[in-house]
Every structure is written in C-alpha cells, then in structure tokens.
Amino acid sequence: MIMVRVVVLVLAIFTLASSAFAQAPQDGIVALLVPGIDTAGQSKRTLGSNWCRLIESLRQQGYRFGGVIRPNPVHIRLPDSLDRQPPGIQVDDPRSANLFYIEPSSAANGDLTLRALEFAECVREIVRFTGCSHIRPIPFSAGGLVVRLAIERAVPGIDDLPWIDRVIFIATPHLGVGWARNIPAIRGTPLTSLSPDSELIVRLNALELPESCDYASLVIRGIRDGATGGAGREYDRFTKKLSGFADLPPSYLQGGDEVVSVISSNLRFSPAAITFEQATGRAVQSLVVRVAPSNDNWFSTDTIHSQALQDATVQQWVAALLACDRHFWSCPQGDSLEQLVALQARQAAFDVIEAQALNANSFREVTKVDVQEFECTSHNGRNRTYRFRGQAQSRDYQPRETLVEGTLELKFDRFGRVTSSRQHIAKMSEP
C-alpha cells in the first residue's frame, strides 16, 4: 500500500472540523445520502463498501441510520419502501433516525429526470414519516445533478422543497465531464447528457439556485493519480467571465479525481452560484480535499473518484458541514476564519512543492509531500504572505527527492476563500 504523507493537511482539517465547526447532530434535521450513477452493475440489495464507511463514520458522530429507501419507480411510502437490513451496515430505529440513503429504482438509475422525481418524493415522505423540519442532502457524483434538478425545479411535476436548507456536494460534475461526449453509454447508462455542452448541464447552470439553501462543494483531487491534467477549454463557457480565475492555486485549476475535473466539481464556478452570491450575500463554499489511492496496484480499476467516500478527511468534512452554523456561509469569524485561511494557505504550499517536483520531469509521480516549515510573515487585511519549506518524494525511473523553499502571496475574500495565489521559489534542489 502506498504511503503518502499528508499528515499536516489531515491534522489541520481535523482540527478545523472538530474545534471550529463540528457540533452534535441537531434535532429536527435529517441527512439524506444520494448516490451517483451505477455503472458497475452492483446488486441493488447491497450498499457499496465506500457508502458503508461513510455511514459508519456518521454513526460514530451520533447519527442514527434508518436504512435504505428503495422507490418502486417514483412511488415511495415509509416504512414500506425502507430496507432495514442492508448488508454491511447496522440500522437504527427509523422513526428516530436522522440519516437515510436513497437507492434509485432500476428504471431511474441512468435517467436523471426520473431520479429527480424519486428524490423529491423521498424528501416529502421523510418529512411526513419522521416529522423533521429540515433535510440536508449529501449527493455524490451525478447524484448532485439529481438534487439540483429537483431543487432548481428543472423537472416538470416537482414543486418547491422548502425543507432542504443545505446541500453538501461530493465530487459532483456541476460543469459536466469532458470525456462523456465520447462514451455514449456504460452498461446501458447514457453519459452524453453529462458533457459540458449538453442541454442538461447548460440548463442547470443557467437556472437559479434556491436562496433558502446553503451550498458546499467537496472538490476531490488525487495525490499521485489525478494530481495533474488540465481541463483544456471545455469549461470556458462557464468560467471565462470569472474575475481572477487564472490566479487561483493549482488545486482549483489542475487535476481531478480521475473522473471529474476540479473545475467541474466546484459549484462556486457555476453561473448559478455567481447569481446566488450576488442575490444573497452568502458564499457558495468549496473545499479541496486531496485523496491518495488506497493501494499501489497499477491494475486496479478503482479511481480516486470511487474511493473518495471512504477517505477520512472527506468523512470529517461531511460531518462538520452538516452540523456547523450558517456563519460559515455568511461570514466566518474569529478562530473559524483563521483556521480556514491557514488550511488553504498550507494546502497552497503543498501544491507548490508537489508542482516543483512534477515540473522537473513530466513522467514523474509524486508519492510523498512534507510541508516541514510554514509561517505567516505578513498580514495586511485580506492579503497574507507565508514562508514555507518542504520536500517531495517522487519516482520516475528511480526515486527522487525535491527540496523546495519559497514564499506565497495569497489573497482571501471575506468568506475566507483564497482568491489569488503567487509564488516565489527561493531554492529548489534535488540532492
């Protein structure tokens, strides 16, 4: 198993989530897990191991899992539509549960419109069955498009869903997937509708996000696999009018999770998000999470995308974003703001060290990064300067070690989001 050192980043995120944002699950709020498209042909009676690990991590945070909701196309009635014995996970009393998983019907798996109808019906039925006041979907991959179709009322027959007050997207292709236009279907599931120029993607990003909700994107970028690669011009129609877009750190512009680009999975870059922020004065937050491959098997079919749900940092952020108060979206302050800024700054240093090693040889893969020294040397309003030193271990035809020292000039907005990054490399060597 590959050992990748991201200890500093992981500890920073755990500290941020546990001390500044994390709270116990709130009464009257139900979290709803929404999967992506099943292209693996997995049995509908079995929850994937990645989902089981996320569910178990939330149960350890105090959430009570009520089971798997299985629509019989579109029609849902609880508890009749509830599977309380899914293999691999413990189920709690559904009447007092605050965590559910919706499994799309076989007819709806590749039909995002039908899935949106099932999702909307599921939301209404959970409210009726549990008496909850709010529902917070946690969609993964194309499941995020399903949620957006429903809440943006892009599908005829879906009424307002006022109970949804927060959505936490994980690796959702908000701006589409470039390669989808070349692969018409996988296991009968059409994928061309996910291309950046498809009618679905263009329409979703032209509609308005409900102002009653808060939104956060967990943007997944690989370490070793998925760390590099640009998006070309595929997303220009969405990003060309974004001020300062090209000045963002590499983690916001390069690479992805081997399926979805970091640009596409960042809802903040959608025209719908820009309109939302202008109308509400609240942020569409985005957090980049670096995920390492779970093994060093070159023949493994698992992608960073499919492994994201079992990543401990992703799990910790999901729990934190579910429970934190609205200040995170309106105006983080005090320790919350400082820790959020420090986390992004340290991650920017990580990116620079990694990039220097990769730039020395494009055939390399970085297997380990240590940010050994890091401090803020200047703080002027929202502008900050950091000094850093660290090393990257990589391999091409033989192991390499790259030592990097330099400074970072970062700008942040009032929401604690980095908006500009400039680097100055003082020293780089490969002993």
3D structure, described in words:
- This protein is of the alpha/beta class and 431 residues long.
- It folds into two domains: 7-330, 3-Layer(aba) Sandwich (Rossmann fold); 349-429, Nuclear Transport Factor 2, Chain: A (Roll), CATH 3.10.450.
- It has helices at 7-21, 49-60, 112-130, 143-151, 199-206, 236-239, 271-280, 304-307, 312-323, 327-330, 334-360; strands at 29-34, 65-69, 82-83, 99-102, 134-139, 166-170, 185-186, 189-190, 214-222, 284-291, 365-380, 383-395, 399-412, 418-429.
- The strands form four sheets. It has a five-stranded mixed sheet with strand order 3-2-4-1-5. A four-stranded antiparallel sheet has the order 11-12-13-14, covered by helices on one side. A three-stranded parallel sheet has the order 6-9-10.
- A hairpin with a 3-residue loop joins β12 and β13 (399-412).
- α1 packs parallel to α9, α1 runs antiparallel to α11 and α3 packs across α4.
- It is globular and about 65 Å long.
What class, by secondary structure content? alpha/beta
List the secondary-structure elements in sequence, H or E: HEHEEEHEHEEEHEHHEHHHHEEEE
Based on the structure, what is the oligomeric state of the protein chains? single chain
Beta strand %: 15-25%
- Count of alpha and pi helical runs: 11
N-to-C CA distance: 26 Å
CATH level 3 topology of the largest domain: Rossmann fold
Number of domains: 2
Largest sheet at a glance? 5 strands, mixed
Q: Can you identify the CATH superfamily of the largest domain?
A: Alpha/Beta hydrolase fold, catalytic domain
The overall pLDDT, averaged over residues, is: 87
> What are the low-pLDDT stretches, counting only 5+ consecutive residues below 50?
1-12
Indicate the CATH architecture of the largest domain: 3-Layer(aba) Sandwich
CATH C-level class of the largest domain is: Alpha Beta
Order of strands side by side in the largest beta sheet?
3-2-4-1-5
Topology, number of strands = 14
Helix content: 25-40%
Globally, the shape reads globular
Task: Please state the CA-atom Rg, rounded to the nearest Å.
Answer: 21 Å
